[in-house]
Amino acid sequence: MADIDALALALRAELGPEQVVTDRQTLRTYECDGLAHYKVIPALVVLPHTAAQVATVVKACAAAGVPFVARGSGTGLSGGALPHAEGVLIVTAQMRRIVEIAPADERAVVEPGVINLQVTRAATPHGYYYAPDPSSQQICSIGGNVAENSGGAHCLKYGFTTNHVTGLQIVTPDGDLVRLGGRALDPPGYDLIGAFVGSEGTLGVATEVTVRLTRLPESVRTLLAAFTSIDAAGAATSAIIAAGVVPAAIEMMDALAIEAAEAAVACGYPPGAAAVLVVELDGPSAEVEAQFEQVTALCTKEGAFEIRIAADEAERALFWKGRKSAFAAVGRISPDYIVQDGVIPRTALPEVLRRISEVADSHGVRVANVFHAGDGNLHPLVLFDARVEGEAERAETVSGAIIDLCIEYGGSITGEHGVGMDKAKYMPRMFGDDDLDTMQLVRCAFDPDHLSNPGKVFPTPRLCGERPGSNLAERFPGVEVF
Amino acid sequence: MAALDELTRPAGDDDHVGGVPARLVASPASTEEAAALVAAAQGLSVVVRGGGTKIHWGPPPRSLDLIIDTRRLSGVVEHAAGDLITVVGAGTPLGDLALGDQQLAIDFHPGATVGGVVATGASGPRRLHYGTARDLLIGITVVRPDGVVARSGGKVVKNVAGYDLGKLYTGSYGTLGLITECVFRLHPRPAASAYVRSTAPAQAVSAILAAQVAPTAIEIDTATGELAVLLEGTASGVRERAALIEKLLAGEVSETAPGWWGRDPWAPDEIGLKLSVPLSKVPALVDSGSALRGSAGTGVLYAAARDITEVERLRALCVRSGGHAVVLTAPAEVRDILDMWGPVPGLAVMRRIKEQFDPGYRFAPGRFVGGI
Asked: What is the pLDDT of residue A210?
């Protein structure tokens, strides 16, 4: 720990003592992110206030060969911000300044600790909002969203964080501050923003983010449709897509998830439903009204026994309350649960859900299903009681089997929660050795010493070989290198 | 491993890139064939060519042994309509895609291939609504310069597993290897569409955006003095929204696009630039006196410059506004004395990426930023 002690001393002098945490009790409060069953106490926590301070910290880590992990609000669900026991945890929560809301450029410039929903709140008076809306948007940070390429219920229509970031200031793993992109689109050169967003903190630390602001839609219409079977709700989803409608969101919950939501927030969903869909359309009124009628008719045709149309913002909020609180609500019906995150082609939905239920039954485990049906992103909640011997293991088995199903059906092991610590082991099931090796060429370009969030995303780190330098001039003597 | 001469043929008169003649040409018909070819071509300098519609973009290669023609890597491998995705060979001409009532919403030059549009990151009017190739590409298969085949992404739109190599390859000008297959997210073909043509100034763009009509494209053309808006959707919805914009701009609803819509504003032997500025700076750029055309709703415009002085003036204007100006194409005598790419922030990291993927600087050498 000599390195860490020296680092702590140096950073205290550079940043100020209150921004460097070494006290064991306080360090312990950072031992996990939103995935609480992984716990590691960091060797050191720093709380920088500026990009320059982040660069100072990273540079010091690079010089000492000490690993570092960036953390925003710590709400991630894949252990992406799990600290390193011999490393520095760089907490960006103090960097929460909205630098500028620029409606004329349709951009906002924010520091990484700014909370997702605050961007929308700041933009709304100007007629704009920030489209990516993870369920945790009241507490998750933009920096974390950038690391994880966060989605949300409305990414069916509006895309993910990567489609909404036009500029970044990052600290590279060797401690350099680099600006990429800005308010203008299509900066020349490799799309480093595209490479960085979703890299889960393994390519450096974002210290400023320029995001697109989206014009508020003229009209938003939301309906809740109740079905007597999952298959019927799945068929309605397919019918809506087949009709050429692109809703802002199509969300589904099954009976067990509805039961949990009812118990927790009394959302008043239709009793007796085996599945409910929340469908939201937004856009110009002239389009939304016609398409909303079409969606309502399709739900009826596929067997919805009750359709409620939100009459006002309060009722719309109630529809969403049941959906958005579903994860936490499951705590009402089960002492413990695993939140899974996998993706399948949406047309395989009914079949995969049947198979999930078979797997769950065969292990005597209950699974509540909540998901973004429109884009096939499943969030099965695998319920268990850790006090009962063997239940946790059985739940883990079922959770892993669900991921296997996603791969079998040509989907993905994660739609929005990230690989992090939790799913690195599944990466070789989705990608071949050569694929993983190629991805890690990018890692080697940014972080040849593997100091930035090591141990995440990739199960086996690639040896980066000889350290690359800018030897273009050596290789091509006489060629101008500008 | 097959010998190189079994996989290639001698180059013909047309097989040159920016005036640099190639020695050999190869047309692999599958990812496996392409991998074998690239593995056998170690030590050679390579340029990848699709339809050739943009092969004159960018500086000429420093050297050129082999042109890999992608046009046999063609065809729709899969079109999962219910999942709104398609898997296509990189050599597939975009104009040949038959996806029924769905579409790959990328604008392209006639004859352009999927791989060419992705490799150059080319875009057109509809980017305002649909985004560009980088936004629509959800999976990619490439052959690395060392002959290794790699995939990233997948066949589902929502997917955050692993690094998104598709983003890195989009707009990389063939400097990181050969793209053989792409997976795209699709959109439904709109039931109806209409253009509103007007002579409103660029300042009107903010009023159009404020009208909440969700336009698919807002294009401006200084030569004709026109500002035109594309609206897509249901028949009744388009009628209503077009009428609103018609009134707002004192324009005229038209079923067809203006003749200049989506076309490069330069002639084949002229200097063509791609300009990009923050949205609020579009009016100043448009009023700066150059011949411009393009997406006034996103700040990505194209210009035909008379000479290097005009290139420099436009570049200074864009860079000062927080944007960029890239010379896409220019006559040889201009190209040779011009910095086509202009200033490139982040170049040091880009060089390190190139050195990881192509340490021998063999793929499209010198065609990209900073001599990459």
From this structure: 98
Question: What's the CATH number for B271-344?
Answer: 3.30.70
Q: B164 falls in which pLDDT band (50, 70, 90)? A: very high
CB–CB contact B322 A184 (8 Å):
yes
Partner-chain contact B356 A431, CB within 8 Å: no
Select from B167, B279, B346 the Cβ nearest to the Cβ of A180: B346
Strand B46-49 relative to strand B66-69, pairing = parallel
Taking contacts as CB-CB distances below 8 angstroms, the residues of chain A near B352 are 445-446, 468, 470
Q: Best of B187, B280, B349, B367 to disrupt the A interface by mutation (most A CBs within 10 Å)?
A: B349
Residues of B in contact with A435 (CB under 8 A): 150-152, 162
Cα-trace Rg, chain A = 23
Confidence category of residue B291, pLDDT binned at 50, 70, 90: very high
CATH class of segment(s) B1-189: alpha beta
Q: Which residues of A touch B350 (CB under 8 A)?
A: 189-190, 192
List of E strands, A352-434: 366-372, 377-384
Q: Is A199 on the interface with B (CB under 8 A)?
A: yes
Nearest Cβ partner for B156 among A106, A172, A412: A412
User: Which of A109, A168, A174, A185 to probe by mutation at the B interface, max B CB count within 10 Å?
Assistant: A185
In this predicted model, what pLDDT tens digit does every residue of A341-386 receive, in sequence order? 999 999 999 899 999 999 999 999 999 999 899 999 999 999 999 9
CA–CA separation, B372 vs B172, rounded Å?
10
Q: How far apart are CA A166 and CA A456, in angstroms?
A: 25
Report which of B85, B65, B54, B73 is spatially closest to residue B11, judged by C-alpha positions: B65
The Cα B351–Cα B366 span in angstroms is 12
- Taking CB atoms and an 8 Å cut-off, how many pairs form between chains A and B? 289
Per-residue confidence at A464, pLDDT binned at 50, 70, 90?
A: confident
| A410/B156 touch (CB, cutoff 8 Å), yes or no | yes
Question: Can you tell me the distance from the alpha carbon of B71 to that of B115, in angstroms, rounded to the nearest whole number?
Answer: 9
CB A40 within 8 A of CB A31: yes
- What's the average model confidence in pLDDT over B301-329? 97
Min distance B14 CA to chain A CA atoms (Å):
27
What is the pTM for the complete model shown? 0.96
For chain B, which residues make up each domain, given as ranges? 1-189, 192-254, 271-344
A351, HSE (Cβ side, Cα atoms, 13 Å): 9
Show the domains of chain A with their CATH numbers.
Answer: 2-93 (3.30.43.10), 98-215 (3.30.465.10), 217-331 (3.30.70.2190)
For residue B9, give how far its alpha carbon lies from the nearest alpha carbon of chain A (Å). 28
In this structure, are strands A88-91 and A44-46 parallel, antiparallel, or unpaired? Answer: parallel
Joined together, the tokens standing for residue A120 give: 């929308």
pLDDT in tens, A125-160: 999 999 999 989 999 999 999 999 999 889 999 999
Predicted confidence at residue A331, as pLDDT, reads 86
pLDDT tens for each residue of A242-254: 999 999 999 999 9
Is residue A461 less than 8 Å (CB to CB) from chain B?
A: no
Of A184, A413, A442, the CB nearest to B324: A184
What interface predicted TM-score (ipTM) does this complex get? 0.97
Contact call for B121 and A186, based on CB within 8 A: yes
Interface contact flag, A189 B350, Cβ < 8 Å: yes
Q: Which of A161, A371, A414, A438 to mutate to test the interface with B (most CBs of B within 10 A)?
A: A438
The Cα–Cα gap between B168 and B134 comes to 9
Sequence-ordered strand ranges (E) for A66-218: 68-71, 88-91, 98-102, 107-110, 128-129, 165-171, 177-181, 205-212, 214-215
CATH topology of domain B192-254: Alpha-Beta Plaits (3.30.70)
